[in-house]
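Sat 14:20. Reprocessing the chain from the morning session after the first attempt stalled halfway. Input below, unchanged.
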Amino acid sequence: MPTELHLALQRHYAGETGLIEAELDGYRADVLRDGVIYEIQTASLSSIRRKLQDLSRRHRVVLVVPLAAEEVIVRVDPQSGEELSARRSPRRARVTDIFEELLYLAPLLRRDNLALEVVMTVQRELRRDDGAGSWRRKGVSVIGHELVEIVATHRFKRPADFLDLLPPELPARFTVADLARAAEVRRWMAGRMAYGLRKLGAIRKVGKRGNAFVYRRAAERRAPGGGG
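Finished this time. Tokens:
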């Protein structure tokens, strides 16, 4: 079932003239507007890989991924559904968080017909203390997300666009440790950034510094004819 967040983004991208749940090539496209398919993904990107692969062979596709720049946690009553409390989450997503999932799609994003749009949002996360949720939340279930506001959008049409996410002070040749310091992210996230950028063809290995690989920005490479 689509979440409220998903449905709100469908309406946003459809606008006045777009079609929602359009039938195309054996799939239901989230939105079809002006000849462009918009696929909105609020779950793992691995689950949509095949659909993007098939649709982008013949159509222009934009993958839309919302991230919560700000989130309000709302507790609701398990019986009545009434809102009991609301508080701001300390979590703040950044555009670079897309690299947590990008490894599933990096080769596909080198296609001419496929672009990625990261949507920074304000969201409400609805929780219910019903004992059925994860042990990390002590049995509290997350029952949905709602869109409050779109703060900003970042579209990546080609691999070289992802280089804009690298800090300007990063040296021309850098290691994962250099990237972690310059971007002010944890080492594991810098590693995923480097891995994703390399799979995109946006950076390449040029040597080693001790035990660490050294990278540099690469010339843009595109898959011929939109192929992956």
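The longest helix spans residues 187-200.
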